[in-house]
Amino acid sequence: QVQVAESGGGLVQTGGSLRLSCSASGLTFDDYAMGWFRQAPGKEREGVSCISRTGGSTYYADSVKGRFAVSRNNAKNTMYLLMNSLKPEDTAMYYCAADLTRGYCSGSWRWGTGFGYWGQGTQVTVSS
Description:
Strand content: over 45%
Radius of gyration: 13 Å
Number of helices: 0
Shape: globular
């Protein structure tokens, strides 16, 4: 049984930092590219970042580039998202998921194409 779980969210002031974790079990973690996504109330889901199965390639949404950093530890079946210089517009539920079709980040990763095994999400709230 595949389980994916996000953790590390919370309430932080503008300019603060958080590190999210995504742990997975029941799948061969290092077979898959992994992604972070977020969804704010009333808005569509947004692709935040994608990391290839080896961690050698990473991609970011323009809105977070230079502030967020994605990484993974395949020995621990865990992916991370370090979020710095947080802004109120970063407030959202953050989800992680595995790209079940490939080990690299496709050109359509930001739309979640091919991603499955979604976690329950972790809430990030940035106060102004």
